[in-house]
């Protein structure tokens, strides 16, 4: 079994692609437009499958906002230096919602950022 991707519905595909590629440094891996079905997909990630799982950004024509609800938690990314990553994200216009620091009850250094649609992304320090 192989973990392939996580799908997120987004209200503005270009804005989301910009965030994931320019702010978080992912690559736009591929896109698929399905006009008959009224949606467009954009896959982003640090590498193609099977090297790493990807994020599928789904834009449904005409839908500009979603209620993320309370069941979804967050995506998690491993980074070498959480403090520096947060500084870079901040400089690029990203929204840090939890400043770097130890996780409650543990030693791992984490921070949180939100994407343009409000999805939470945890940054976990994982030295190389």
Task: Kindly describe this structure.
The chain is of the alpha/beta class and 128 residues long. It folds into two domains: 5-60, 2,3-Dihydroxybiphenyl 1,2-Dioxygenase, domain 1; 75-125, 2,3-Dihydroxybiphenyl 1,2-Dioxygenase, domain 1, CATH 3.10.180. Helices cover 16% and strands 41% of the residues. The chain is built from two helices and eight strands; from the N terminus they run βαββββαβββ. It has helices at residues 13-23, 82-91, and strands at 5-9, 27-34, 39-45, 54-60, 75-79, 95-102, 109-114, 120-125. The strands form two sheets. Strands 1-4-3-2 form a four-stranded mixed β-sheet, covered by helices on one side. β2 (27-34) and β3 form a beta hairpin. The two termini are 26 Å apart. The mean pLDDT is 95.
Approximate helicity band: 10-25%
Number of helices: 2
CATH class of the largest domain: Alpha Beta
The structure class reads alpha/beta
Mean pLDDT across all amino acids: 95
Percent strand equals 35-45%
Count the E strands.
8
List the helices and strands and how they pair.
Layout (H helix, E strand, L loop, with lengths): L4 E5 L3 H11 L3 E8 L4 E7 L8 E7 L14 E5 L2 H10 L3 E8 L6 E6 L5 E6 L3
Parallel strand pairs: 1-4, 5-8
Antiparallel strand pairs: 2-3, 3-4, 6-7, 7-8
Record keyword descriptors for this entry.
128 residues, globular, 2,3-Dihydroxybiphenyl 1,2-Dioxygenase, domain 1, single chain, four-stranded mixed beta sheet, 2 domains, alpha/beta
Quick structural overview:
By secondary structure, the chain is an alpha/beta fold.
């Amino acid at each position: 079994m192989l973990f392939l991707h996580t799908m997120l519905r987004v209200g503005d595909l270009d804005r989301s692609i910009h965030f994931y590629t320019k702010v978080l440094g992912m690559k736009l891996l591929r896109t698929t437009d399905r006009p008959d079905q009224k949606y467009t997909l954009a896959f982003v990630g640090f590498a193609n499958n099977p090297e790493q799982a990807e994020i599928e950004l789904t834009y449904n024509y005409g839908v500009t906002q979603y209620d993320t609800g309370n069941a979804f938690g967050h995506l998690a990314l491993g980074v070498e230096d959480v403090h520096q990553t947060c500084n870079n994200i901040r400089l690029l216009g990203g929204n840090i919602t939890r400043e770097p620091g130890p996780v409650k009850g543990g030693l791992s250094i984490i921070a949180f950022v939100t994407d343009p649609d409000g999805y939470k992304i945890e940054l976990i320090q994982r030295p190389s």
